[in-house]
Amino acid sequence: MAETLSPTVLTLKDIAREAGVSLATVDRVLHNRPGVRPDTVRRVKDAIARNSFQPHVAAAELARGRARRFAFVMPSGSNPFMQQIEAYLGEMAGWLSARRLNVEMIATDVFEPAALAASLEALSGDYDGVAVVALDHPSVRAAINDLVDAGAKVVTLVSDVPSSRRHHYVGIDNIAAGRTAGALVGRLVGQRSGKVAIIAGSQGLRDHAERIFGFNQVMATEFPDLSVLPVLEGRDEDDRSEQLLARLLGKHGDIVGLYNVGAGTQGVAKALNDKAQNAKASGAAGRDKQVVFVGHDVTALTRRLLLQGVMDAAISQNPGHEARAAVRVLLALARGEPILSEQEKIRIDIVMRDNLP
Amino acid sequence: MAETLSPTVLTLKDIAREAGVSLATVDRVLHNRPGVRPDTVRRVKDAIARNSFQPHVAAAELARGRARRFAFVMPSGSNPFMQQIEAYLGEMAGWLSARRLNVEMIATDVFEPAALAASLEALSGDYDGVAVVALDHPSVRAAINDLVDAGAKVVTLVSDVPSSRRHHYVGIDNIAAGRTAGALVGRLVGQRSGKVAIIAGSQGLRDHAERIFGFNQVMATEFPDLSVLPVLEGRDEDDRSEQLLARLLGKHGDIVGLYNVGAGTQGVAKALNDKAQNAKASGAAGRDKQVVFVGHDVTALTRRLLLQGVMDAAISQNPGHEARAAVRVLLALARGEPILSEQEKIRIDIVMRDNLP
DNA sequence: CATCAAATGAGTTGCGTACCTCAAAACACC
DNA sequence: GGTGTTTTGAGGTACGCAACTCATTTGATG
């Protein structure tokens, strides 16, 4: 009826006795320090495995003495998503200090490869771990690899650099996110046929490009009645996005769906609202006439738009989860603990009005 | 440019010096032990606050010596959702033992108030924390309160007993979950009008009742073209669910939506498939003729149904997250640490084919 | 002022590990 | 067998706190 999930754990001393060696030797094996004969190493490792020994996290942490330093390298500027990550890290202040973890935020222009690489290089040697919202560029890749070589644990956040030797990526699969957006637009449009617009920050950004790719994939294979218009590039700016979209809506009267890949949501919403006003003025109305609008991220603005019914769904990667996962992964890496991959995996959340967090 | 989120933290000794008292007195204040004048208490607390002192978790954990014991009281039987929770706890085994946490699973008939209450009473005094999938019943409530009085930290899991003095609830808002299901069915049905069926385990279960309530709320206010049929009670059994649903589908030819509130998914899917076969045989076909099917939880079965297109969306509460959150909350409560409420909040996930985890 | 209880100081021990030193032992090589 | 090198043992200290004991001081009360 009762089943225990955690076997009793021995201490270092017990292992030393088991293996017939001294504490010092076990310690050497445990930390891969030199000066132990291969044969002895095996004996010790056997004893460790046999007893499924695990160092007591608390004792280890206490014994090492010094605090750990982590750096979060994030975009400068007023990106609300990044601000949320910062805010959640702030909320963790107590948790962090109780574990003697120092987390520092470093703002830099992540869209400028040279600047980002320089920021990263400057960290070398001073930090136990670095989380970075990275641009995928050769010099950035090199900077990441240098950090790794210097002994730091490196985690990419939100946007990955798969070709680097970073230890972990904390973020979503953007192709799947785009597919999800596509499926939502397609299904919510229903039986209507017509055109679908896409507005992104820039197709040069890896995450945006991947989302568009996934979106088009689903559109092409599953919703043949919908035709996708060429992508508008709004540079994540409100004004520009509004103008581009307004013009497009004017040109094509039969737009039934809209996918906003990045930011600039304020402008997108404005253009959509203006169109709705015109439609109402000219007599057409009702749910059937509305444009299905799917975007990304839950912010104060998108929350309002969802509640008003202007926006139909937001694809979201929980920024709080990302912040905490990045810290936990860095900590686990630094401690040499395994990562709870299931826990640290970032999910693609579909947020509609009724499951707003 | 760089901003530190974690101020340097002092030790107990520093606080004692600051407050002009001895270590022993700080210790007394810190642990609410008697024998300190109110005035002195304030002086010490001021010093603690002034320096934002926090005991080093590792040191505290190490000093207390003994391991902590947690119990998970879960339904007996083969509920896949509960099995997943168990599996995720198993995955955490290393994490748990590195922290000297003992987690025991205790199976009991949670639908039998007396049995559940007895199981809970039996734990009194032996455990530092208890997580329980609870039935809301007076005797269960009393048992929970007794546990709390005995000094254990109690967390309700999945299903809450709000009237008890449990310390925390780890689970979703089931009314909001029902609303979300309603919005999905309504939106995915599109312009069609017709009837919507609901099949639940039992309306006596608190979570099921709440979901149905939320679902009907949305249906009534937002989708007047859809009429909701009386709730079928399938007792979460496959056969019974299939029979009930098959009969209903036969009786009403214009069913366009279906909400499965609990389990019994296998049977529900079978009944739906049979209907689809018949429809195809009689010439009608295409997406328009399909019944929109929304259910709960991502299991091996629902995953398959989503991929096949039989099921359109699953409302899910991440069982892995629930398991880990329950452990973390119990641990934080036992340590007297604050709970990261944002982290431990369970979200209502909408899972469709393209964002399957 | 004496008496007693309450408040406080001072100190000890132990938790399990990391990290260090120094000496002893084992081994390899000529 | 002697030399030099590698491997191992033994032991110590420190980490920051919990939990405890016992002596001492303070304050109130009669």
Automatic annotation (TrEMBL), chains A, B:
InterPro entries: HTH_LacI, Lambda_DNA-bd_dom_sf, Peripla_BP_I, SBP_2_dom. Keywords: DNA-binding, Transcription, Transcription regulation. It comes from the Bacteria. Residues 10-64 form the HTH lacI-type domain. It holds the Pfam family LacI. One of its GO terms (molecular function) is DNA-binding transcription factor activity. Gene3D superfamilies: 3.40.50.2300, lambda repressor-like DNA-binding domains. This is LacI family transcriptional regulator. It comes from Bradyrhizobium yuanmingense.
